[in-house]
Specification:
Two copies of one chain form a homodimer.
Chain A lengths: L1 H13 L26 H11 L4 E2 L2 E2 L6 H16 L5 E2 L5 E5 L9 E6 L12 H16 L8 E6 L7 H6 L5 H5 L8 H7 L19 E7 L4 H5 L3 E7 L1 E10 L3 E2 L11 H17 L6 E3 L3 E4 L5 E2 L2 E10 L2 H22 L2 E10 L2 E2 L2 H13 L4 E6 L4 H5 L5 E6 L15 H21 L2
Parallel strand pairs in A: 5-6, 5-7, 7-18, 8-17
Antiparallel strand pairs in A: 1-2, 3-4, 4-6, 8-16, 8-18, 9-14, 9-15, 10-13, 11-14, 12-14
Helix pairs in contact in A: 1-11, 2-4, 2-13, 4-13, 9-10, 11-13
Chain lengths: 442, 442
């Protein structure tokens, strides 16, 4: 009995009726236990395999935004839109958009998608899995004659890796200063948007307002090792962590390594080391998933026989809970103060990046959970430690993400890999989540 | 009575009879309390002031070995030798040597001197104080008609700052590989020796054998802050510390700063920080004057949002006691092992430089002590934390050094400064130490 209750509850949330040949606008029988739909997984993995040659270099995938390889990747993607019958257009920000009309003209669009640009020396899965997965979902719906009530829009955002430029444009969060920044390709973002077919002078035409969308969903590789370690197939993303970057300048006094006794030093390196150890201990001593990383350190004069007079280091702090980010910001300042006093150095801490956590919508997560359950996939709720276009969309629409495992937790590397079956699992979950969203949302 | 005993004892060691107008070869009245001799301090400081314009740049003194400024400095110095009647010659290593004959042809030379080359962006006192001080001592002896029993040789070593090249040549410790090294000037040492008037093909002609010299003494600025802090005028150097350099390569695994939980990291930066803190604590927990410095750190990939996969750092370890250097070499390896295990990283520690401590001769130190006492100068015994040509000479002759205070303990910097009165004090001590050595040694 208990088992049956669980199945009913699961079905109520997520079981997807077989919509094939259902007449447009037909009322769905809630609670009926129909089999979930499936995408054409072989086709999806075929696209990914073919795409692997676009921007491939000896050191990895190099489809950095606005480069020739990025343009080649976008041309490839536009063809997939066309083959899917999605009649693609490029908005003024350079995002690629396609659309399947719904049966109810009063309903807002459901938006799904990701990106196809890469980091320098990256892999073939970060972005393309979710982009091609979304195109495949739309194509499968058409091929299987499933007509949604809502319009379904598929988006491939431009320049995600350079700071979610396309999705930030779509929510009106791009400043003139952002446009003047030089991207990895060597072009400014202003130039780049023109290169990919946008129009900076009419950027506001790409904007969506709060409430314009029914919801936004994005399939992505995890880029970490939690799913693999737990032996699970699907991650239901509870949100994208907030991110704060600090630049810490530690000033001591450069002096002779041989003639300066240990108790008369103002050693910026020792102060930096104590800071790095204390930051790590502070974060690990509080339960939760906070991460703090000291990834960069520049030492002056950086000479074997001179006590360092200055160290500049960075701290990357992330958590899903904004209160924890505030807590650790204060804690790091306090640690710097204490170590500065103890080592006769000064700490100057500047905040350089500050992104608020983007919390997933509980209803969208429930649809994902239900879709995964109907497909029999093992899964867990988890935060995204990396940034995504979804974090921008969360500011204007109910958002959630679907994660599939990254082998070895490796990403932003030529070693990045997600198994073909996991790619298909993710697209199947996205497909059935779209159907749940279509059925339920208004 | 006690006080009188002390004065007698001090006089027995060091009091210098007034030798002016003493006929050559005259027997000195030991135990008599004559006034010490004095150098021409104004002249010595005048030379230093004039020399300050040679190689002066906006960022400091740049008389790096074999540069045009070094050649100009050597020309200036050769003139001082000539004016002092020292009839200078350049040996095959490029060292400048002058000589005052003694009255007893059976006695070995007393050698005094230092260097005039500088580091990049250095000061005007490291080297010239001892070089010009030695020339002034010889000139004062001549002018005051003091004839020594021993020959007195004055040396200005070439390329001290590039690894005591001149003095190592003089003890036969230069290898063909050393000659191929590129000096700060951009020239190889092989080229440089030719440029300053030496002859690499006949380098062995510059060699002195063990027992060739009566003793070697060098006046130098302290380059640290111990004398200033203690309010003392003269340092009697007990020896030059042994030096060992280590290059430590810490290998972890580079990964995403956002998606890798704190307990799944192999963070080379964290391991490096723990190592730096532990090395500092290890050295400070053992009483004594050991110094250990982590002066250089190179991080890969050194990016704010990537957990560092590799850190290469250096350790500079110094002590006058060779047993302590051995002890800490083992201790650092053990610390690396422990931290590597705890942080899932590997430590590879390579030794790159290894110089044994150079211990001063007790008799030469006693002469310095006595000379300083006869002049009424406050003083202490102390190690030299920096390397000097004296460390090479200690391998073949009884050696000791005389230190004068460095203002603020600053050296190898344009801020390097030693007060004129301290320069004169040091030269006066050297003068009277030479006389004590001449009287006593054979």
């Amino acid at each position: 009995m208990k088992r049956r209750t669980f199945l009913q509850s699961s079905a109520a949330l997520a079981a997807v009726p077989l919509l094939r040949n259902t007449p447009p606008g037909a009322t769905l029988a809630l609670g009926a236990s129909h089999a979930p739909l499936r995408v054409n997984g072989a086709r999806l993995n075929g696209w990914l395999a073919k795409f692997d040659s676009v921007g491939r270099t000896p050191t990895g995938i190099n489809r950095v935004a606005y480069s020739d390889a990025d343009l080649a990747g976008r041309a490839f993607t536009l063809d997939l839109f066309r083959e899917a019958g999605l009649n693609p257009r490029i908005d003024t920000a350079g995002n690629i958009l396609g659309r399947l009309d719904g049966t109810d003209r009063s309903l807002k669009p459901i938006l799904i998608g990701s990106h196809v640009d890469s980091v320098t020396d990256g892999g073939n899965f970060d972005g393309p899995v979710g982009s091609f997965g979304a195109i495949e979902v739309a194509r499968s719906l058409r091929e299987q004659n499933v007509r949604l009530r809502h319009p379904l829009e598929v988006v491939v955002w431009t320049n995600e890796e350079g700071g979610t430029v396309g999705s930030r444009s779509a929510i009106g969060h791009i400043t003139p200063a952002d446009l003047d920044k030089v991207a990895r390709s060597g072009k400014t973002i202003r130039e780049g948007i023109g290169i990919v077919g946008g129009n900076v002078a009419k950027l506001s035409e790409a904007e969506r307002k709060k409430g314009d969308l029914a919801c936004y969903m994005e399939l992505h590789i995890e880029q970490g090792g939690l799913l693999e370690k737990a032996g699970l197939q699907i991650g239901v993303v509870e949100g994208i962590v907030g991110l704060r970057w600090f630049e810490v300048t530690i000033t001591g006094f450069a002096n002779h390594a041989g003639t300066t006794p240990m108790d008369q030093r103002q050693d910026a390196m020792l102060a930096a080391a104590k800071f790095a150890v204390a930051v790590n201990e502070a974060v690990r001593s509080v339960p939760g998933r906070t991460v703090a990383t000291i990834g960069r350190m520049v030492v002056s004069p950086n000479t074997t026989n001179v006590i360092p007079g200055q160290v500049v280091l960075t701290v990357d702090l992330r958590d899903l809970d904004a209160a924890k980010i505030t807590h650790f910001t204060d804690r790091f300042a306090q640690i710097g103060q204490e170590i500065g006093t103890a080592t006769k150095t000064t700490f100057d801490i500047k905040q350089s990046v500050d992104t608020a956590p983007a919390i997933s919508d509980p209803q969208v997560m429930a649809w994902i959970d239900g879709a995964a359950a109907s497909l029999g996939f093992t899964r867990q709720r988890m935060p995204s430690g990396a940034g995504h276009d979804a974090q921008e969309m969360s500011r204007i629409a109910p958002m959630a993400m679907i994660f599939v495992p990254s082998v070895g937790g490796i990403s932003h590397s030529p070693k990045e890999f997600t198994k073909p079956e996991d790619v298909v699992n993710g697209a199947d979950v996205l497909l059935n989540t779209v159907i749940s969203a279509d059925r339920a949302s208004t």
